[in-house]
Design goal:
The protein is mainly alpha-helical and 71 residues long. It has one domain. It is 82% helix and 0% strand. The chain contains 2 helices and no strands.
Length: 71
């Protein structure tokens, strides 16, 4: 299972990409251009986020299981 640091790095990278997308869309709107989203990119980002969150949940569940057995 990937480390928590790797998961956090991936989520931060995705967050940075989403910020760039939003900034570009806002610039286009301010310049009067229509924004045509690339749905495949949005789909890929969503899949990456869901994967990272599943890994994070797994890591946290494993951590909780570890501490429950120590009682």
């Amino acid at each position: 299972m990937p480390s928590l640091r790797a998961i956090v790095r991936e989520l931060n990278r995705i967050g940075g990409n989403i910020n760039q997308i939003a900034r570009a869309a806002n610039t286009s709107v301010l310049q009067g251009r229509a924004v045509e989203p690339d749905l495949s990119v949005i789909h890929d980002a969503r899949a990456a986020i869901e994967s990272a969150l599943a890994q994070l949940r797994g890591a946290l569940d494993g951590n909780a299981d570890y501490w429950e057995t120590r009682r």
